[in-house]
Amino acid sequence: MGFGSGGAVNEARDVDELDDAVGGIPVLLRQYLKLGGKLVGFNVDDAFAGVLDGMIVVDLRKTERKLLDRYFTCEGAEKILSKGSL
């Protein structure tokens, strides 16, 4: 089963499909994926009961405007989108 291009989860619809396929995605991870987050690394945290940590990178300039408005207000979204490339 593939999601998005190259196996990436890159749309809210893909997150919903993945959630159904694996029987549930933790809420916080689900929200980062809907923002376009990419999981770039993993670590087992032995100091915290062996949980799996994941490093997520989100390019907010590529995030849907309505999501930016929700999390950062309209003014905050404008600032993010006006930055252009790094």
Report on this structure.
This protein has one domain (5-81). The protein is built from three helices and two strands. It has helices spanning 12-22, 27-34, 65-82; strands spanning 38-45, 51-57. It has a two-stranded antiparallel ribbon with strand order 1-2. A hairpin with a 5-residue loop joins strand 1 and strand 2. The longest helix has 18 residues, at 65-82. The termini are far apart. Residues 1-7 have low confidence and may be disordered.
Attribute tags:
86 residues; alpha+beta; two-stranded antiparallel ribbon; 3 helices; 2 strands
Topology diagram in text:
Layout (H helix, E strand, L loop, with lengths): L11 H11 L4 H8 L3 E8 L5 E7 L7 H18 L4
Antiparallel strand pairs: 1-2
What's the pLDDT, averaged over the residues? 80
Largest sheet: 2 strands, antiparallel
The total tally of domains equals: 1
What general outline do the C-alpha atoms trace?
globular
Structural class: alpha+beta
Uncertain spans, ≥5 residues at pLDDT below 50? 1-7
**Element pattern in H and E:** HHEEH
Major beta sheet, strand line-up: 1-2
Determine Rg (CA atoms, Å).
Answer: 15 Å
Instruction: State the end-to-end distance.
Output: 34 Å
Number of helices: 3
Instruction: Estimate the helix proportion, in percent.
Output: 40-55%
What's the count of strands? 2
Fraction in beta strands:
15-25%
